[in-house]
Design brief:
3-stranded antiparallel β-sheet; about 170 residues; globular; mainly beta; about 10% helix; single chain
Length: about 170
């Protein structure tokens, strides 16, 4: 399924909140409850993983500790190929079929009604930008990245830049 964005409010063109059924600026996202609701969407499995009950995907709960020092810091920023390799080699919570999520999967866990951390708090600590496994269509030297601080996606990133990693697998 497709997740809901979580937006429930509506605004006029100047940023003043208005009723969602107002004829002033109709049809905003907050007017519709589409997709899987945010409430109860994620389950903490108690084993460093989170299951998305909407998509059926199982996620690594915290940002990957790529260097294995027991902490998630800027030392865990890695270039794109290293992010792919980390996920391919990961054995976590009794599973070894982890992978780097594609850009749509990664974007699916953005909560668009949250700011200063556009990701459900169940995911624990997070960094700002995360690699996806999807390379840019304009040029294969670029890859798509999701920015979890603000909740946006961008693709003009050369693959030798360093970002965080969060692995995913198809749930059981």
């Amino acid at each position: 399924g497709l997740p809901d964005t979580g937006q429930t409010k509506c605004y006029d063109r100047t940023g003043v909140e208005i009723p969602c059924d107002s004829p002033t600026c109709p049809g905003q996202d907050g007017s519709y409850a589409t997709g899987c609701p945010s409430e109860g969407r994620f389950t903490d499995n108690g084993d460093v993983t989170v299951t998305d009950n909407c998509t059926g995907l199982q996620w690594q709960k915290d940002t990957a500790d790529v260097n294995g020092d027991g902490q998630t810091t800027d030392q865990d920023y890695v270039p794109w190929c290293d992010a792919l390799a980390y996920c391919e080699d990961l054995s976590l919570a009794g599973h070894d079929d982890w992978r780097l999520p594609n850009v749509r999967e990664l974007q699916s866990i953005v909560d668009y009604w949250r700011f200063d951390g556009a990701i459900n708090p169940m995911f624990g600590a997070f960094g700002s930008c995360y690699w996806s496994s999807t390379f840019g269509a304009v040029s294969p030297v670029y890859a798509w990245v999701v920015h979890f601080y603000y909740g946006y996606v961008f693709d003009d990133v050369e693959r030798d830049v360093f970002f965080y990693v969060r692995a995913v697998r198809r749930g059981t």
